[in-house]
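Hi, here's the filled form for the chain we discussed.

Project: internal
Contact: R.S.
Residues: 186
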Amino acid sequence: MKHFLSALIVFATTLAYSQGEDNSLKGVPFKERIVTGGGFGLGFGSNADFISVSPQVGYMLTQKIMAGTGFTYRYTNYKFVKPSIKLNDYSINPFARYNVYENFFLQAEYEYLNFELPVSLNETTREDFNSFLAGGGIIQPLGDRVSLFIMALYNFSYVTPKAGEYAPYDSPIVFRIGVNAGGFSF
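And the returned structure, exactly as it came back:
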């Protein structure tokens, strides 16, 4: 919790400082401030199949600040046992993104994840995970209103699982690559 509060204070201070700059979007229509995007993942193998869909929607508050939320659905089918183990995970992650310099940005987000994990070959259970993530990345315009982003976030809520325990993440570092469409490119 201490890390969460420290990171939140630093991020809020940065956002407050940027408000003093002339980066308003006065006169820009509402629908032109909306940014959509996200990611999609597929993996197929002899032991497991994986599908992930992560749409995002954001709103440009200023030329430097965007706030929004993302949703994720993840399906995993472990085939190394019979019958196979099929798991479904769901998450929501409100975020704030601040453009630091040209194409570089900082991002902070909260993630609520409902994670399904196996208890035995025939039974699964669900757990809730709450995480605070913060980090940065780069956004590269691909066209007038389309851009590619790459980011690395640190999960300040990450705890290494004990032997025999499951966790939704293998590491406190989370890498993401995706595409944004609409709105402004920083």
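Let me know if anything looks off before we file it.
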